[in-house]
Input
Amino acid sequence: MTDERTRSIDLSGLGDWKRSDYCGGLRAADNGREVTVMGWVNSRRDHGGLIFVDLRDRSGILQIVFDPDSSGAAFALAEALRSEFVVAIRGRIEKRSAETINPNLATGEIEVVCLEAKLLSQARPLPFAVDGNTEVTEQTRLKYRFLDLRRPEMQERLLFRHRLAKSVRDYLDGAGFVEIETPVLTRSTPEGARDYLVPSRVTPGHFYALPQSPQLFKQILMVAGFDRYFQIVRCFRDEDLRADRQPEFTQIDLEMSFVTPDDVMAVTEGMLTVACALRGIEVPQPIPRLTYDDAMRRFGIDRPDMRFGLELAEVSDVVRNCEFKVFREAVAKGGIVKVLRVPDGDRLSRKDLDNLPTLVAPYGAKGVAWVRVNADGWQSPIAKFLSDSERKGIESACGAGAGDLLMFLADSPKVVNDSLANLRLKIGDQLGMIPSDTYAFVWVTDFPLFDYSPEDKRYVAVHHPFTSPRDEDLERLESDPASIKALAYDVVLNGTELGGGSVRIHRPDVQSRVFQALGIGEAEARNKFGFLLDALSFGAPPHGGIAFGLDRLAMLLTGGTSIRDVIAFPKTQRATCLMTEAPSPVDPKQLRELGLKLSE
RNA sequence: GGGGUGGUAGUUCAGUUCGGUUAGAACGCCGGCCUGUCACGUCGGAGGUCGCGGGUUCAAGUCCCGUCCACCCCGCCA
Output
């Protein structure tokens, strides 16, 4: 079939032809001009004695008319054209007659009458149509990414990503930030995600790590006196993938000297304003703030979707001694009981209610108790276990009134919050309460500095080990680590964490104490972070910064649900590339040079 | 590591409950006709390792076991 397609046609070179215009920009005002356009055959309509070709380039689509009266040679060539052949067209722009205008095309008032044509390249029959009307599975798209990326939708996404990065760069440049590159081959650090390792040939048995972020380098650039740094930089984390997580991703990374959290947040708000303006989206000035404790209390999550209500309320104290064993025992065991109030609860059917346990099971919850608050009292399987005063207490805790549906979770704080946070999203979505054209930004502040890891039997850094505690908490660093709040802040958009940052520790004594609290001994700290402690000891300014997920920002601003759609060549969930088939085995010789041996 | 969904023509899917003649549709592809289409029309045609391996059966796309791939989620990750 390939042979038949290609047999009788000669390919041409460009010769002295130069493109005069992109397809998509031509208009009625160009009537009469002779133009040279080049691009791909988006589609071909052959009427026997007359052939129309929609020519596509990055800018759009333009109709070319091949008429034997205008050029017999070009017409003969048009007969052989097929989808995605690459051609150069010389022709004259003509206004279309009124009845042949195509209002669906930006260039629909005109067409190009072909006077001369060159076939630059042929295409085998395609695995899928590039025309944008055909649904294709992602697996096929990723294998033939070069074709997928031709689709106007993907072109627009990547062009937008370009404009987004440029607007950020321009803004930060204008705000006095200096773009400085940091190493990609660097050293492995404990804490945080699993590193991608790169073996050293020159020092066998030693490894570089690809950076999870340029964290330490940017701090050292502050010590070096650059005052304001930024970088749009690739980061690497060898963890399992999600729709919004790739093993390599791009951060907008910045750091500033002599600042408080407010200063970093102000720069961030300016940057987001410029970025969102590309989509006509307004960013509130300032972006509302929520403490971590409030976020957890009201939404059960540290990245709440603020586009809708459905807030949570805690009722542990109300039900501490109630007759319902599940509630009573949860509280007795140090757990909590929280309630999600759904207004107009009859929008959820009994079947919906029966399905609730399935929705929370992934988070370890054993069930969901529910109550319908009717005008004449409570309708609920657990109503009989709750006294009048307990009912009143619950109603006042969550503001319940007639018509509301209440959903209860009783378990450890983690299970309750995880479950209800997820339930809130699911139900908000199901009831159509989440407006899709709204962009709700929120700062989450005052994160805990440490989180206790039962697995490791020690405290781990919630943000990272270089985050500064609040000054007023310093004295409790050793005595009550769990109570320490960090000078850390996340910016959240529609329930997605866009960026996070902190003011850093700039005193070597404080840094050492935090390492101690994290169970990183003096010798290990010296060994792993000696260069940082050194740097801090030679005159470090107070400094802080933030890092943004460029991919996530691009995804949200293009209305996508997966960052793969704003990454030209993304990886699959198993971190492979379907186009290049990376990763791949390597030649034994390469392994020998690196001093590596594979086990079995 | 775990849970879920999917894999049938180049593509997107139906067919799988309840096993049964030659596995279908649309789009695409190939050929004929067609001078105003733009999802062109029209006539004809080709195209299948039913993801892969094993099993049950007279008989497997369909049932059973294993396995690979993609996606969503939990764990993991800021």
